[in-house]
Amino acid sequence: MKIKILDFQYEKNGRKIFDQLNWELDPEKVHFILGGNGVGKTTFYEIITGLLDYEGIIENQINSKDILLQLQGVPMLPTMKGKDLADLLIGSDNGFGEITLERIQAYLPLNSHEKLAYLWDSTYGNMSVGERRWLSIYLFSLLDRELYIFDEPTAGLDVQSAKEILKIIENLSTKKGKKVLLTTHQLTEMDYFNDYTVTFLHKGKNYFTGSKSEFEAIKRTAPSEYEALTNFLN
Fold first, then answer.
1. What is the tally of structural domains in the chain?
2. For residues 3 and 188, what is the distance between their CA atoms, to the nearest angstrom?
3. Which letter does DSSP use for residue 51 in this model?
4. Is CB count within 10 Å lower at the N or C end of the chain?
5. 109 phi and psi, to 5 degrees?
6. 134: CATH
7. What digits encode the pLDDT tens for the residues 104-119?
8. Separation CA 144–CA 197 (nearest Å)
9. How confident is the model at residue 94 (pLDDT cuts 50, 70, 90)?
């Protein structure tokens, strides 16, 4: 998927979010989309998924039915149990089939089976933020989609919960034919991935796109440029 000369602004305030932006999705790796608050990362995702109208060209656009977009703060009934959440998130996917604890556990490493069993019968209201996020993202990863978009999936979580979620996403990204877009404000989270492509958005433009090795080379050899990139996250 390739984006060319993308323009977008919200009618209410007239602020231009994207100005002749060009970008290409790397289909072989996790692709990080980074930038400061208000730079338009969520807007970028909503354009990709077809939720917003825009000016520009998107070549080889992925059908919205083949995209999963995870957003923060989606409300759920506190009385729902983990198994109800599984029914809600993946039960409507006709290709998945019967939903049972044992079947869902089969996709997890053994050391996570006990955690899933506990959350399966726990109510959503009694789960911690980390448990809710872990369960939701794990269930999302079981859906058969071409593109998975995770918008700050580890925001506000403790280190262990964040690590577990990043592992789920990393495993998903290694599956054949799966593409992953991911947003984070913590550069250290990129270290959990063996390979990636990263894009920095700034002032409506694609300021930098490069591979893991290219980004790490800037850190080693061009500290002033690296500092400028990381300052965009503030």
1. 1
2. 28
3. S
4. C
5. -65, 155
6. 3.40.50.300
7. 998 888 888 999 999 9
8. 23
9. low
